[in-house]
Amino acid sequence: MPFEPAVDLLPALLDSPFREGYVPSIVYVSLYVSVIAVSLSTLVSVPVAIVMGFVDFRGKQFVKSVINTGMGFPSVVVGLLVLFAVSNQGPLGSLELIFTKEAMIMSQFVLATPPITAISLAAVTGVEGNVRDAARVLGGTRLDVALVVIKEARYGIATAVLAGFGRAISEVGSVLIVGGNITSSDGISKTRTLTTAVQLEARQGRYETAMVLGAVLVAIVLLVNAVVVRLGDTGGMGR
Amino acid sequence: MIRLSNVSHTYGDEPVLEDLSMSVDPGEVLAIIGPSGVGKTTLLRVLALFVRPSSGTTELDGRAVWSASESERLALRRRIGMVFQEASLFDASVVRNVEYGLRVRESWRERLRSQFRSVVGANGTPEAVREALEVVGLGDKLEQDADSLSGGEAQRVSFARALAYDPKYLMLDEPTSDLDPRNTGVIEDAIGTARKRGIGVVVATHDMHQAERIADRVGVLLGDGFSEVGPTERVFEDPTDDRTRKFISGELVY
């Protein structure tokens, strides 16, 4: 039977990582987890950076050291800590978050917040004092001055968000620990991200597919960079 | 009227202003002259209600500023404009810079509306912004980026920015110290325009000729307070204080 080999191949094809919906689903999980985590980090980091840039308080240097240490915090350790927190015996055990996207968002949040805060702080501190003074003397309230500082520091803050996003989306260790790299029975990703998928493909010796997924990851990072830089450059920031 | 009574100010342990009293009326130009480092900038910042002096009272139009509530103080502060020695423009277009003082005085609803209009490109330039830029001769630079301006143009925009929201008083800290004669002339004319509008202008300058050209009154600040305050001509022609005379004639060097 001339067609038999082809029929034999069919299950293998279906089994391939490129089964319909598989790649979009891991791209979706990667983006979903990273975008939400980075958005939450930004909502926390930028106000913290503004306050630290404006207000002198006791222990400020200590807080800065903590943030800087956080930038180099090993992601697997963060993964472990989040795992303990969400495990059945952990303080958040009742929420049943283990091996979910939400748990992954938690660990990404912990990882992305220090770099976003530190780089935003550098950007905010870099805004010249006389520009702040100008906003105030022209009749601005404290909030107006803060808004001016954010606007002036927009490129630095955009860089901070990109750095945080870069850390989140290329993260393997912690998402593997808290997410578990799970797909459902139909092959659609539950907690599998591009990075954990690449890791899996490489471990199983399927280097071509690992390369393809790696290329998709790089393309996404490039695209996000381009969009953010463009937003910072044009009317998006009310120039 | 802005009135300072027995104002002293220190930075750390260092006294900058000592027991100083003075006043500024609407529609007059008062020049503060004196050597560098004598506290001219600090005095201007106190007059602009930007710095709370270590002691003494600051009154604006009869109201004691630093014992007023925060919201009242904001309203008082908004009657005053200040131009710093450096242009200190925002990284935005000229028109955005000049309209800033108007925007912060709007309600959030109005601000959101004009932000939306500017995004869809339907936002007209407020008349006050145009007028202020014409006073400094930059009516044709509305849409230019502030960072593409020359130093002189930037300083003129900075002046227009303070003029646009029609303050009652204007503090100018060495507004022409880095400028060429042409730009200096434009700024001095603009000071004249502000005066005609009834704005009380205080100019800190180390250029005595400039003070002679533009000021109704001159205050000579030498180390520990004013050595003399009076009508420009009288102070320059016939100073009553010995140190003032020496400073004006160039004998007193700091």
Task: Using brief descriptors, characterize the structure shown.
heterodimer, A: 239 residues, MetI-like fold, globular, B: 254 residues, 6-stranded mixed β-sheet
Strand order of the largest sheet of chain B: 6-7-8-3-9-10
Quaternary state reads: heterodimer
Shape of chain B: globular
Strand content of chain B: 15-25%
Poorly predicted parts of chain A: 235-239
Question: How is the topology of this model organized?
Answer:
The complex is a heterodimer of chains A (239) and B (254).
Chain A: H1 4-15, H2 22-54, H3 60-71, H4 75-86, H5 101-126, H6 129-137, H7 142-152, H8 154-169, H9 173-179, H10 194-203, H11 207-233
Helix pairs in contact in A: 2-5, 2-8, 3-5, 4-5, 4-9, 5-8, 5-9, 6-7, 8-11, 10-11
Chain B: E1 2-11, E2 14-24, E3 29-33, H1 40-47, E4 55-60, E5 63-64, H2 70-77, E6 80-83, H3 94-98, H4 100-103, H5 108-119, H6 127-135, H7 151-163, E7 169-173, H8 181-196, E8 200-205, H9 208-214, E9 217-221, E10 226-231, H10 232-237, H11 242-249
Parallel strand pairs in B: 3-8, 3-9, 6-7, 7-8
Antiparallel strand pairs in B: 1-2, 1-4, 4-5, 9-10
Helix pairs in contact in B: 6-7, 7-8
